[in-house]
Design brief:
mainly beta, Thrombin, subunit H, Pdz3 Domain, six-stranded antiparallel β-barrel, 41% strand
């Protein structure tokens, strides 16, 4: 289908963007990845294993979380619907500074809101670990998370995730493809985490708060508890959530020695964990 104007590009992108309501007040946006109901969003938009989806025409659908990786902040949903208008993904490796980009999302409940800007850079950002971001100077707000960042042709180059200073940060489309195809191997720890600030005397003030632990996981066998704060491994302290994914990167069983805080956080504890391969029937986690 050929587009003759910017308005048509934006309208088609709107029809491939959904509202995602993840429960307990959480919510954001999502991108239709395939016509048979596969939808991509940010992991932080979700708070459970099910979500409610609202399409561009107002239809409401229930969806199950089929894949989630909080370390790279991506999740896949499956809605029971056919014939959805799928977005077109571009190669984020070809994105260059200065390109025009547009974002569609649902900030503050305004469905299908459009913002435009230009790419500032593509790559890591100081303080956010080694992860690569498509960085653009366009306006995002709560509710944009999980929505598309697209080029002037309407091809998705990233999934909007956060704001850093005046820059909108999107997870590159190539990272999304790798996530969905399972080509980003990592050992299994079995935790969901959230970044937190800890006393500056410990790990530079950064830690990863354990929110959930999967039953039977390496983390459970190592006696980690929800509320523990991971500070780092023998390779060094964590400075971003991406550092946990990097520490786990690679397949096969191996030992990792973690430093963490517990209880009143008065002393640093250490434990060696045998991280391994996730059983096939389990969903993805860090």
């Amino acid at each position: 289908m050929a587009f003759t104007g910017f308005g048509e590009v934006a309208e088609r992108l709107r029809r491939s963007t959904v509202v995602v309501r993840g429960g307990q007040g959480s919510g954001g946006s999502g991108v239709v990845y395939s016509a048979d109901g596969l939808i991509v969003t940010n992991a932080h938009v979700l708070s459970g294993r099910r979500a409610s989806i609202e399409l561009w025409d107002g239809r409401q659908l229930d969806a199950d979380v089929t894949q989630i990786d909080r370390s790279c902040d991506l999740a896949a949903l499956r809605a029971s619907s056919k014939g959805l208008l799928a977005a077109m993904l571009s190669d984020s490796g070809r994105v260059r500074a200065g390109e025009l980009v547009l974002a569609i999302g649902n900030p503050f409940g305004f469905v299908g809101a459009l913002s435009t800007g230009v790419v500032h850079a593509v790559g890591p950002l100081p303080g956010l670990g080694a992860a690569s971001w498509v960085q653009a100077n366009l306006r995002l707000a709560p509710g944009n998370s999980g929505g598309p960042l697209a080029n002037a042709s309407g091809e998705v180059v990233g999934i909007n995730a956060m704001v850093a200073g005046r820059l909108a940060l999107a997870i590159p489309s190539n990272t999304v493809r790798n996530f969905l195809s399972g080509r980003a191997p990592s050992a299994w720890l079995g935790v969901s985490v959230s970044p937190v600030q800890v006393p500056a005397s410990r790990s530079g003030g950064f830690g990863l708060l354990i929110l959930e632990i999967e039953e039977g996981s390496p983390a459970a066998r190592a006696s980690f508890l929800p509320g523990d704060i991971l500070l780092g491994t023998e390779r060094g302290p964590f400075a971003a959530i991406e550092d946990l994914r990097i520490a786990l990167h690679g397949s096969g069983e191996r030992q990792l020695r973690f430093e963490f805080l517990r209880g009143d956080y008065s002393r640093v504890r250490r434990v060696t964990v045998l991280v391994g391969t996730r059983p096939a029937e389990r969903s993805r986690a860090a």
